[in-house]
Amino acid sequence: MARVVRVVDGDTVILAGLGSSRIVGVDTPETVKPDTPVQCFGPRASAFSKHVLGAAGRVRYRVAVEPVDAYGRSLVYLWLPDGRFFNAMLVRRGLARPLPFPPNTRYAPLFQRLAERAARRGRGLWGRC
Questions:
Q1: Longest Cα pair distance anywhere in the chain, in angstroms?
Q2: Can you give the pLDDT at residue 109?
Q3: Based on the structure, what is the number of domains in the chain?
Q4: Mind listing the pLDDT tens digit for each residue in 66-99?
Q5: What is the CATH classification number for the domain harbouring 45?
Q6: Which of 22, 92, 97, 123 is catalytic?
């Protein structure tokens, strides 16, 4: 378990003991990337992550096969204290697209199925962007 120190945006969080951590396997629209405009549905994805992870306070995490990205962030899968898989929640609600990046593809088939279902239902970014 790790304490959520701060949520940066929809797919980046600061975890106690790990530091800056990228929620792996998914990609939310940008809101804080330098020299990049705020993207469609980015503020909603960011607000959701801030609300849910902030309310949880602590998360269970698993570091991905490739543990660190090119920016030095830990690559993590997150679960809420009640057992819900946060990475999947983002995709299911249409707040993120799958981002399979080998070798970190353990949940790629799940994320793809959830994205296809969200797109069919016009959820989140699929219905607005």
A1: 39
A2: 98
A3: 1
A4: 999 999 999 999 999 999 999 999 999 999 999 9
A5: 2.40.50.90
A6: 22
State yes or no: is 113 an active-site residue: no
Q: Which residues of 48-76 are buried (b: 16+ CB within 10 A; e: fewer)?
A: bbbebbeebeebbbeebeeeebeeebbbb
Confidence of residue 33 (pLDDT cuts 50, 70, 90): confident
pLDDT digits (tens, 9 = 90+) for 13-23: 999 999 999 99
Asked if residue 49 lies in contact with residue 28, where contact means CB atoms within 8 angstroms, the answer is: yes
- Is 123 among the residues known to form the active site? no
For residue 62, give Cα distances in angstroms to 8, 17, 66: 19, 13, 11
Say if CB 70 and CB 9 are below 8 A apart. Answer: no
Residues forming a β-bridge with 22: 12, 75
Domain span at 97: 2-128
Is this structure's pTM higher than 0.85? yes
Handedness of CA 48, 25, 17, 29 (dihedral sign): negative
Q: Does the active-site annotation cover 73?
A: yes
| Pairwise CA distance, residues 33 & 84, whole Å | 28
Q: Of the listed 3, 6, 44, 73, which one is catalytic?
A: 73
